[in-house]
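Design request, tokens follow.
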């Protein structure tokens, strides 16, 4: 949510900032801007995307070897040229870019107005720029101290880059709640919301911690906390390569990531299953196995697609490990007064590891005595650093805003955890455990089989591309997949869609059914198959169009469905890993046919770092 990139060194900053912003555009894309410093200060910003920013800088002075850039996802103030970042203080001493929300900005603004400050934009960021300037001028302190004093007055979340006119060649960064990574080069530093803009220049990075302030210049790097205590930052080596962040032969990241799933699922279980397929080994949770096996209850917290994975995880842990599970929207959980005690196990699931509500939920339960695990895709993310233990999904970087491979990797991680816990708790026999492991290993090839049917799925997409709405029905462990299918469709094609437990349809959504409504039904040969056939009949009786996801070779279902998408037969526990793939492809092709911007759907952002 908002992308930040900055550079200080000897190279020309402009291309570094522009490339970096393009890589970060998935975080927000309603407006963008850069500031370049070369003796004088040049600021270019506009509503729109990075390509629009490039247009307005054509023919302009873009020199300078210090600079900062921002791609915005609006919180305070509509997306327009004025509200775009960077924001300058009224007297022009400071220039600021910001990711996050200053919650007490209205109060701070009033105080500044009393001191004669006028505001050009509606943003909270401009308030911060003026607050820093006011302290700097009134208290006659250096820029760094002015920043620290200003931040001590701020309530909220921020990832910040600040430049002071009087201190050329220096940038000040600060973090609370919104991620910032420093790339360490030779006499140069890079700064960004994640490592993507940095990887082609250096693999040495420092993940800033909350309440740290860093000063970057060609003379070096100085990291302190808000109270001026020096910090010794830990330099880590990242393994991200440029190839990971290119689209390759695909037109969209989402499409590429859908097709990566045979590999990303394999990467999630690679090295975690014994060669003879007899056991699962999860090194990241080894130390907390007693707490997992003895948990009175598991509470899962997550948002968006990760929440859907958690819902399916609930079925797995209850069915195979016989541990009661509750699944919570992190944003609701954190504002209730939930009862969590030391025998509970909290599992936070997040692709990015930076979702503000999920992190807040984790922080909230820290003192409860409960063990907290993370399931996360991004190494070094806040979640991975704030949980006691966890499982990385190793799905590789996910750039498409609509999450796809992260879901199947999260499901793989949850499946392994549930099977392992079931076996260790004697709820699964050795034979059952081995059979489940053997089934999991076959999943990547089965996903490949489904991907090979893409042309047929695309054909079905073309039939329903103009639908005004859609219904997704599932039962049991496939109900969360129905929710996920509906979410994929609505977020990228803007067709309203609802996911429902199939039997619940009779209590409302059935009223929507007519000959124009596509109903996507998960009707695989599982223990609820017959019930699902009855639900399909109910849809057909009202002239709804049924698109069934069914088990390969199922002759009966052909008689009921208008369209059939077959998936290979697998163990029911593993079915979400297959059943979701046709839904991802359907949503993708419908969105492309409707001319939607698949990788950058309107109003959304990949990483929601504000609550
Ligand atoms: C945003 C993204 C979704 C994602 C959700 C949770 O809404 O657009 O794709 O599922 O955040 O993100 P997380 O990184 O915590 O899994």
């Amino acid at each position: 949510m908002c992308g930040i990139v900055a550079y200080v060194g000897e190279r020309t900053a402009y291309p570094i900032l522009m490339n970096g912003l393009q890589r970060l555009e998935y975080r927000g894309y309603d407006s963008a801007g850069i500031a370049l410093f070369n003796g004088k200060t040049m600021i270019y910003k506009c509503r729109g995307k990075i390509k629009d920013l490039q247009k307005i800088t054509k023919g302009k002075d873009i020199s300078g070897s210090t600079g900062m850039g921002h791609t915005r996802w609006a919180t305070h103030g509509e997306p327009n040229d004025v509200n775009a970042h960077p924001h300058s203080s009224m007297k022009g001493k400071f220039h600021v870019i910001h990711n996050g929300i200053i919650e007490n900005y209205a109060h701070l603004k009033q105080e500044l107005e009393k001191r004669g400050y006028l505001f050009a934009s509606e943003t909270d960021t401009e308030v911060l720029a003026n607050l820093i300037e006011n302290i700097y001028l009134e208290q006659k302190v250096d820029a760094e101290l002015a920043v620290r004093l200003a931040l001590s007055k701020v309530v909220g979340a921020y990832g910040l880059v600040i430049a002071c006119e009087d201190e050329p060649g220096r940038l000040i960064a600060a973090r609370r709640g919104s991620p910032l990574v420093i790339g360490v080069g030779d006499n140069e530093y890079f700064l960004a919301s994640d490592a993507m803009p940095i990887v082609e220049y250096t693999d040495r990075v420092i993940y800033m911690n909350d309440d740290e302030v860093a000063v970057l210049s060609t003379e070096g790097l100085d990291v302190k906390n808000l109270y001026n205590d020096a910090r010794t930052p830990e330099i880590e080596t990242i393994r991200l390569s440029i190839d990971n962040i290119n689209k390759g032969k695909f037109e969209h990241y989402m499409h590429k990531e859908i097709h990566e799933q045979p590999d990303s699922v394999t990467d999630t279980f690679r090295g975690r299953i014994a060669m003879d397929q007899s056991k699962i080994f999860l090194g990241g949770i080894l130390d907390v196995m007693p707490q997992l096996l003895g948990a009175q209850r598991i509470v899962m917290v997550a948002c968006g697609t990760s929440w859907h994975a958690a819902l399916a995880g609930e079925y797995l842990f209850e069915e195979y490990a016989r541990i009661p599970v509750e699944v919570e929207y992190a944003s609701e959980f954190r504002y209730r007064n939930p009862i969590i005690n030391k025998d509970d196990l909290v599992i936070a699931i997040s692709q990015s590891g930076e979702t503000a509500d999920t992190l807040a939920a984790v922080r909230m339960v820290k003192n409860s005595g409960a063990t907290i695990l993370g399931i996360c895709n991004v190494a070094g993310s806040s979640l991975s650093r704030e949980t006691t233990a966890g499982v990385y999904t190793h799905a590789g970087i996910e750039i498409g805003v609509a999450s796809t491979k992260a879901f199947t990797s999260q499901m793989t991680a949850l499946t392994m955890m549930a099977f392992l816990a079931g076996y260790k708790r004697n709820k699964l026999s050795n034979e059952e455990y081995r059979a489940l492991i053997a089934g999991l290993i076959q999943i990547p090839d089965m996903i490949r089989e489904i991907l090979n049917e893409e042309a047929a799925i695309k054909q079905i997409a073309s039939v329903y591309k103009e639908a005004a709405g859609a219904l997704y029905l599932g039962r049991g462990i496939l109900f969360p997949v129905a929710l996920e299918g509906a979410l994929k469709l609505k977020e990228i094609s803007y067709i309203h869609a609802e996911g429902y437990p199939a039997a619940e349809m009779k209590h409302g959504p059935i009223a929507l059914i007519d000959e124009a409504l596509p109903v996507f039904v998960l009707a695989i040969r599982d223990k609820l198959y017959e019930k699902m056939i009855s639900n399909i009949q109910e849809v057909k009786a009202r002239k709804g169009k049924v698109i069934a996801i069914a088990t390969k070779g199922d002759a009966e279902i052909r008689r009921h469905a208008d369209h059939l998408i077959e998936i290979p037969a697998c163990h029911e526990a593993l079915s979400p890993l297959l059943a979701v793939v046709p839904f991802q492809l359907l949503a993708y092709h419908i969105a492309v046919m409707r001319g939607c911007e698949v990788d950058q759907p309107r109003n959304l952002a990949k990483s929601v770092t504000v609550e």
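Comment from the thread starter after seeing the answer: thanks! The chain has a mean pLDDT of 94.
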